[in-house]
Write a structure and sequence with these properties.
8% of the residues lie in helices and 31% in strands. With 356 residues, the chain is mainly beta. Strands 1-2-3-8-7 form a 5-stranded mixed barrel. Strand 14 (286-288) and strand 15 (294-296) form a beta hairpin.
Length: 356
């Protein structure tokens, strides 16, 4: 079953420690101690335990650091009170999904071991610890997404919580991924630290969060391993998504009254670009908004080489308060995904463009 009590904990980070190889070679963690104003068992604080090694055959983690995070989730986080807030594992709110929130570029992930010797940054502790130490020194606010311990003295599962195999598959579920999100109030900047296990799949079921049959794991996707050691056969899906078609822009906030039958203005529109030198049929392709509402393309949808197709989002609303736009192929696999903030959507009649 998925994790039981998903949510986000807001506090102020006060100290951090990391378990090195000689301290715990099996299941080490980085422990971030934080103050949420209610005290705690750890010298007056609570504790977030961040995995830095997997118990599976592939022990490495995948790490993404976004120093200037701009995503609809940050607009929602800043309004939370200190302490733990339960979150429903559903799209459109505070729940995070590494695949469906369009918050990460998977190809930018870095596969890192737990603890390696040397004076250069070559393991996950070397990358994560300085970020947390800087957040403490600069008195940032921390938002921790994961599952609280039963005694409510902290939380864990601060990583991707879907696409796992074998004994960890029972914890899979969509819209329940963990993360460390930092807010530097002095400059009003958010930063995000995201972690997954190298053995987790990059494509998962919409309902169960289980790995789709034949889906590559991060190790093979990012080229760290030719194949998953747990797999008897090569992944049946392509290792990388077909990026011939991308979402190049969206008219989220048309001038005038939008989404009304009487409106005579331009409707909300998503622009798809064909980056290949071949024409492509888009029959059966789907565009999803942040609520996973679907706009399916017609059977005669065609995209010429280098062309841009304007798709009116008939019946599917693109929120002016920030949102996501996801493109799926006829098999339901994610081809591209983008996000935009409320600030980007505010100007009427302006197309929000996405760097590709």
């Amino acid at each position: 079953m998925p994790i039981l009590d998903y949510g986000v904990w807001r506090g102020r980070p006060v100290r951090v420690s990391a378990e090195r190889l000689d301290q715990d070679a099996t299941s080490p963690h980085i422990h971030l101690f934080f103050d949420d104003g209610t005290g705690g068992h750890f010298a007056g604080t609570k504790r977030a335990s961040i995995n830095v090694k997997s118990l599976s055959t592939l022990s490495e983690l995948v790490y993404w650091h976004i120093p200037d995070l701009r995503h609809p989730i940050t607009d929602a986080l800043r309004h939370l009170s200190r302490g733990f807030t339960p979150v429903e594992s559903l799209p459109g709110g505070l729940a995070l999904d590494y695949i469906r929130s369009n918050i990460l570029d998977f190809e930018a992930g870095r596969i890192l071991p737990h603890d390696e010797p040397g004076h250069i940054a070559n393991d996950i502790i070397d990358f994560v610890l300085p970020e947390l130490e800087a957040a403490i020194a600069r008195r940032a606010t921390v938002y921790l997404l994961g599952e609280p311990y039963s005694d409510r003295q902290g939380l864990h599962d601060i990583h991707m919580n879907q696409g796992s195999t074998e004994r960890f598959a029972k914890y899979n579920g969509p819209w329940q991924d963990g993360a460390v999100i930092l807010h530097y109030e002095a400059e009003d900047r958010f930063a995000g630290l995201f972690m997954a296990f190298a053995s987790q799949a990059v494509h998962t079921d919409e309902v169960t969060g289980h790995a789709l049959p034949g889906a590559p794991n991060f190790a093979s996707y990012l080229g760290a391993r030719p194949l998953s050691p747990e797999a008897a056969v090569p992944p049946a899906m392509p290792l990388r998504p077909d990026r011939r078609v991308v979402i190049s822009g969206a008219l989220v906030n048309p001038a005038g009254v939008e989404n009304r039958p009487s409106s005579k203005g331009q409707p909300e529109t998503v622009y798809l670009m064909n980056r290949s030198d071949e024409g492509l049929s888009l029959a059966g392709w789907k565009i999803l908004n942040k609520l996973d509402e679907v706009r399916e393309l017609a059977g005669d949808a065609w995209l010429a080489p280098g062309a841009v197709l304007a798709v009116p989002m008939t019946g599917v609303v693109l929120s002016n308060r920030g949102g996501t736009i996801t493109l799926l192929d006829p098999q339901g696999l994610k081809v591209d995904g983008v996000c935009y903030t409320a600030a980007e959507a505010k100007p009427e009649g302006k197309v929000v463009t996405f760097r590709r």
